[in-house]
User: What shape does this take?
Amino acid sequence: MVAKTPTRTQVGIIGAGPAGLVLGELLADAGIDNVILESRDRQYVESRVRAGVLEQATVELLDKHGLSANVHAHGLVHDGVYLQFHGERHHIDMRRLTGGRTITVYGQQELVRDLIAHRLQTGKELLFEAEAVSLSGMQWGGDPVIKFRHGGVERRLACRVIAGCDGFHGVSRRSIPAQDITTFSREFPYAWLGILAEVAPSSNELVYSFHESGFALLSMRSPSVSRLYLQVPPGEEIADWPDERIWSELEVRLATPGWNLERGPVIEKSITPMRSFVAEPLRHGSLFLAGDSGHIVPPTGAKGLNLAIADVKVLAEALAAWFSSGDESGLDAYSPTCLKRIWNAQNFSTTMTSLMHLDPAADPFSLRIQRALQRFTVENLNAMSALADNYVGPPFDSPLQEGGKR
Ligand code: RFL
Ligand code: PHB
Assistant: This one.
């Protein structure tokens, strides 16, 4: 059966990553019609290995909208993390330090798979291999149109509002005239090499490790699949990292007395550059940027996916108020509300990144300062509490979001 391609909707959503898919659900639950356009095919989107840490507020939002059955069935609830410096492993008990809050380790890839299945089962519009190529009519009160290519044909989707959930390289942010947007960015002098391996995680909780050869992270996806990362120079080629080299480097950087890293078959490996990026504002007339299209954080704080979901919660509530009563105050508050949380997450992610990585240009003085900060972080209760608070993330309705409350 060939479905008819939609030509009109209330909210045109570009991108079927976590931001676009969750937004589509929240809007549908509020009775707002929406269409998701995704440039890639379903198989590609569902197999892209990325984030793994869900903040408690993210899980609670998924719970509220009936999207979390698999998160609870297969996700791993973690009470803490380990920070390791120079071979010494320190436990940060997040549950105790935050008055009971936790994180859940669940692959972004699995979450995306769940969201797609739910959307298709409930008969809502989601077009794969539908690439948005240009946006027009974005002045507020205009007639926004997304031009997209689907099945070799150029088509138009007329909407009231466009949600740009198309990631860092998408068309949405690029469609905003340069004079109407300011961008802030920072490149880091290293990248992350990540692997998925078929082996039980060698630790019950995540281990973030600083070593004089560079950073390493032990994470996981399930009781039988590990996710591990190594700091590598930017521009490094994956071909120069055969499995044996990766495992021996991980062993060196994660080593602590009396502990062993179990090896297993590597089923995926890739290198990701590290960057910070924020676009301001996140709104241009009837175009709203959400998730990675508006901001990128270095992955050390595990915040990217959670920020994307925090954005779309604020956006969905603002759109619900506007569609139901014409109240524009939530839409006006969208960008400042989200930017507050985003800059807090940038601060935390940058702090974690510089605490845990070896800066190849660091002089001996800077290395001693870094060492002092590492000790302070695991010896001072206030420092540990601040880290735990930031890591589990603020509740979605905390004062950090107050600009968006109506
Ligand atoms: P996505 O996931 O990039 O989805 C955007 C979607 O838009 C599509 N698209 C288009 N569709 C139609 N027309 C166009 N013109 C289009 N252009 C693009 C794309 O194909 C894609 O499907 O963005 P979204 O939804 O904003 O989600 C953001 C998250 O993916 C990202 O922030 C996280 O993965 C970041 N991240 C982490 N976040 C966490 O919260 N916790 C973590 O533990 C964590 N670890 C990570 C990470 C990111 C990593 N990499 C690979 C960058 C670890 C890594 C290694
Ligand atoms: C992951 O499991 O992919 C992961 C965990 C923690 C991070 C980044 C990525 O900080």
